[in-house]
Amino acid sequence: MSRLDKRLLMYDLIIIGAGTAGIAAYQQAVKSTQNLLIINDGPWDTTCARVGCMPSKVLISTANRMHDIQHADRVGLQVESKIDRSQVMQHVQKLRRTIKIRSNDLLATFDI
Ligand SMILES: Cc1cc2nc3c(=O)[nH]c(=O)nc-3n(C[C@H](O)[C@H](O)[C@H](O)COP(=O)(O)OP(=O)(O)OC[C@H]3O[C@@H](n4cnc5c(N)ncnc54)[C@H](O)[C@@H]3O)c2cc1C
After folding, report:
1. Ligand 1 centre from 48 Cα, in Å?
2. Same domain, 72 and 89
3. Most CB atoms closer than 10 Å: which of 12, 52, 98, 103?
4. Which residues line ligand 1 (CB under 6 A)?
5. Sign of dihedral through CA atoms 70, 72, 76, 79?
6. Distance between the two ends of the chain, CA-based, in angstroms?
7. What's the whole-model pTM score?
8. Same domain for 36 and 14
9. What is the pLDDT of residues 13-50, one digit of tens each?
10. What number of CA atoms fall less than 13 Å from residue 26's CA on the CB side?
């Protein structure tokens, strides 16, 4: 058995990846043991919050609102519409930062 194998056997649990699944696994596992290891290669963040569910849903919501505005004449409203892409992305980034602050709070409890 290699030295690495022996070191890994010291842990009650090893979690690979600190994304959505890894963080959920950590939150449950830490209730039973502090003797666990997280192996992560890449950003200490979930795909969901970084580039997945969250930013995509913000963009879809923005697009839906624009669609409503552009078709407001159907209900008798005359509304001018203009997209400011830069501000749309700033909004996405602002919400993403809020989520990142929350995950940073959790990361602070990791012994990295
Ligand atoms: C555009 C988009 C929109 C989405 N919308 C939704 C949605 O609306 N609803 C929904 O439920 N899901 C959505 N998803 C899917 C969702 O983001 C994923 O299902 C979820 O993030 C998967 O979680 P995970 O823990 O498996 O992986 P991730 O959150 O991706 O975490 C993987 C972790 O593993 C680490 N890692 C990678 N390679 C290694 C390695 N070799 N060794 C160690 N660590 C490694 C990474 O750094 C990362 O921290 C969307 C995804 C995308 C891309």
Report:
1. 6
2. yes
3. 103
4. 16-22, 39-43, 46-48, 51-53, 56
5. negative
6. 26
7. 0.81
8. yes
9. 999 999 999 999 999 999 999 999 999 998 888 899 88
10. 21
